[in-house]
Amino acid sequence: MSQSHPTPTRRLAYIARGAEYAGKSERTIVRWVEKGLLKGFKVGPNKYAVDLNEIDRLIKTHPTIKRQRFGPDAQIIDLSNVVLPVEGVEQ
Q1: Measured in whole angstroms, how far is the alpha carbon of residue 29 from the centre of its chain?
Q2: Could you tell me the pTM of the whole model?
Q3: How far apart are CA 68 and CA 52, in angstroms?
Q4: Which of 3, 15, 31, 85 has CA atoms 20 to 30 A from the CA of 67?
Q5: Could you tell me the end-to-end alpha-carbon distance of the chain, in angstroms, rounded to an integer?
Q6: Angstrom distance (rounded) from CA 34 to CA 51
Q7: In the chain, what are the domain boundaries?
Q8: Rounded distance, CA 46 to CA 15, Å?
Q9: Of 2, 38, 7, which Cα lies nearest the Cα of 22?
């Protein structure tokens, strides 16, 4: 009998909010998506979001990446009901 692990809820936010949350620039967040360090989610024409849980994971697992200005109390915009995955990014 296999145990199933609950899937964590995505905490999605626009790129700008993800950058604020991580204390990084929007360009840095886009670079992380381009490098495959974060998944990007297309939420509309020219609108993308990232999962704040993945930013937390990235900061914890990469010792050279540190959160700078904002912490876990940053406002979260939940887009989980309207998000489509970005082509070429595995979920």
Answers
A1: 8
A2: 0.63
A3: 15
A4: 85
A5: 26
A6: 15
A7: 12-84
A8: 11
A9: 38
